[in-house]
UniProtKB/TrEMBL annotation:
Keywords on record: Amino-acid biosynthesis, Cytoplasm, Isomerase, Methionine biosynthesis, Nucleus
Residues annotated as signal peptide: none
Protein name stated in the entry: Methylthioribose-1-phosphate isomerase
Active site: D262
Name of the gene encoding the protein in the UniProt record: MRI1
Domain of life: Eukaryota
Site (Transition state stabilizer): C178
InterPro entries cross-referenced by the UniProt entry: IF-2B-related, IF-M1Pi, IF_2B-like_C, Initiation_fac_2B_a/b/d, M1Pi_N, NagB/RpiA_transferase-like
GO biological process, one term: L-methionine salvage from methylthioadenosine
Phylogenetic placement of the source organism: Eukaryota, Fungi, Dikarya, Ascomycota, Pezizomycotina
One of the record's GO molecular function terms: S-methyl-5-thioribose-1-phosphate isomerase activity
Length: 397
């Protein structure tokens, strides 16, 4: 395998890497309908805010390419737009917290409404709308990697200029949480993209990654990506972050916690994987920078504060059971055999929120593809300058 790819696409065919089988197996599932995409997203075979949006958008593109709209009697322009809307509305329900999916859906709905079909025969007009949808979905996929590379460059430059600690060679160490790399995006990654960019520039001393309980995106996915990219790295459990900062911050030149985002709202409050908030409190206490890496597609200007974010709650089994490859008596991992085991009393009550909200107050910088946003003299984030059109559209002048 030459590079990690969560999503493989060519017109008419979408293949999605089953992340539940990682790191032991690399299996791609064909996804060719909205129902298959919904299931793939809900069951977290694909996850990560940008990747969820891309899979939903492309799955419907494949569905349209196969002519699914024709069998749904959507052969008039209005019927075609209504059909596309209904499939996108259905996909929107797959996971609630990440805003990228909602933003992609709004964008795609606008695209199909903007197609000029004046004076055209119904069939030709319908095809033109379908073609515009497919091209727009492909563009979301194509643009994502460029966006992430830009986030990587902006974030690395900002951190090197603002790091509270650096090695004698000017390098920094960082801690990241969850998975925000190639597996959560179309490539390069957001928070992991900054780490990748620092490493490529020879300015990364070390990357620490948390296990990210309960779903273990850190140990299953980020650790896998770091090893794959040969980035010097260490895995810790979520509960070790405080001790890491307390005992090794100076020795290891730990300059920042860098995380991704599922939704950054207008005042900068940020929903991200459960455990992010605790890391932001620890970072502030220890004088470590706290950086959110997020494409502008993860920014939700409609929601004013974190109190308005819907937090997904997931099933108890994610805490009380775990699956993994079998380790033989000789200590060797048998990747052909995976097992699910119980790790808690199966009747205990469970609270399993998938995300938490970090208040803007504890965030030092939001790194987007358009640049780095920090707080103004009033202590507030202002996204007006990096997304003026969306701001005017949503918030007004
Ligand atoms: C670039 S991915 C950013 C976030 O989506 C990521 O940090 C995260 O919280 C993912 O959660 P997940 O539940 O695995 O979809």
């Amino acid at each position: 395998m030459s590079s990690l790819q969560a999503i493989r696409y060519r017109r008419g065919e979408l293949l999605v890497l089953d992340q539940l089988r990682l790191p032991h197996e690399h299996h791609y599932d064909p996804v060719s309908t909205s129902e298959e995409a919904f299931d793939c997203i809900r069951s977290m075979r694909v996850r990560g805010a940008p990747a969820i949006a891309i899979v939903a958008a492309l799955a419907h593109a494949v569905e349209l390419h196969s002519g699914a709209h024709l069998s749904s009697a959507a052969t008039t322009p209005d019927g075609t737009v209504a059909y596309i809307d209904s499939r996108l509305d259905y996909l929107y329900e797959s996971r609630p917290t990440a805003v990228d999916l909602g933003n992609a859906i709004t964008n795609l709905k606008n695209v199909v409404r903007d197609v000029d079909v004046q004076g055209q025969e119904a069939g030709a007009a319908s095809s033109k709308i379908v073609e515009a949808y497919i091209a727009a979905a492909e563009e979301i996929f194509r643009k994502d990697t460029d966006t992430n590379k830009s986030i990587g460059a902006h974030g690395a430059a900002w951190l090197l200029a603002n790091a509270p600690a650096k090695s004698a060679e000017g390098k920094v160490a960082v801690l990241t949480h969850c998975n925000t790399g190639s597996l959560a995006t179309s490539g390069h990654g957001t928070a992991l993209g900054i780490i990748r960019s620092l490493h490529q520039a020879g300015q990364l001393a070390h990357a620490f990654c948390t296990e990210t309980r309960p779903y273990n995106q850190g140990s299953r996915l980020t650790a896998f990506e770091l090893v794959f990219e040969k980035i010097p790295s260490t895995l810790i459990t979520d509960s070790m972050a405080g001790a890491l900062f307390n005992t090794r911050r100076e020795r290891d030149h730990i300059a920042a916690v860098i995380v991704g985002a599922d939704r950054v709202v207008r005042n900068g409050d940020t929903a991200n994987k459960i455990g992010t908030y605790a890391l932001s409190v620890l970072a502030r206490h220890h004088g470590v920078k706290f950086i959110v890496a997020a494409p502008t597609t993860s920014i939700d200007l409609r929601t004013e504060t974190g109190a308005g974010i819907k937090i997904e709650e997931r099933k108890p089994e994610e805490l009380t059971q775990i699956s993994g490859a079998v380790v033989g008596k000789d200590g060797k991992v048998d990747t052909s055999r995976t097992e699910r085991v119980a790790i808690a009393d199966q009747t205990i009550g469970v609270w399993n929120p998938a995300f938490d909200v970090t208040p803007a107050e504890l965030i030092d910088a939001v790194v987007t593809e358009k640049g780095v946003v920090t707080k103004g003299a009033d202590g507030k984030f202002d996204f007006r300058d990096i997304m003026p059109e969306r701001w005017a559209d949503v918030v007004g002048q």
